[in-house]
């Protein structure tokens, strides 16, 4: 699955990662990551894999395009950036 710049950036921001943090985790330069997110640079297969693995190691699950819907991602429900659901009981 191709990792589109907007999808990559959305996953990174959802996890609360800076470009520096993701670049370091992926073993690439911050400049390369920044240029890719802006759509100014194509990634090698190796770089693509490194970024994907860095995000997946933090719980991101990438979703393929399916049923007329574009690609996306999920993060674990217990991730600190995910709002907790209210457990208040409804009263009749």
Automatic annotation (TrEMBL):
Start and end residues of each HTH cro/C1-type domain: 8-62
MF annotations from Gene Ontology: DNA binding
Biased composition (Basic residues): 81-92
Region (Disordered): 71-92
Source taxon at top rank: Bacteria
CDD domains per record: HTH_XRE
InterPro entries: Cro/C1-type_HTH (IPR001387), Lambda_DNA-bd_dom_sf (IPR010982)
Pfam families (UniProt xref): HTH_3 (PF01381)
Protein name: HTH cro/C1-type domain-containing protein
UniProt source species: Microvirga ossetica
């Amino acid at each position: 699955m191709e990792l589109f710049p907007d999808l990559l950036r959305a996953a990174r921001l959802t996890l609360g990662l800076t470009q520096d943090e993701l670049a370091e985790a992926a073993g690439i330069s911050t400049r390369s990551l920044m240029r890719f997110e802006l759509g100014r640079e194509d990634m090698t297969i190796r770089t693509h894999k490194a970024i994907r693995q860095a995000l997946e190691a933090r719980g991101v699950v990438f979703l393929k395009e399916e049923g007329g819907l574009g690609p996306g991602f999920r993060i674990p429900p217990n991730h600190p950036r995910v709002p907790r659901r209210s457990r208040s009981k409804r009263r009749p």
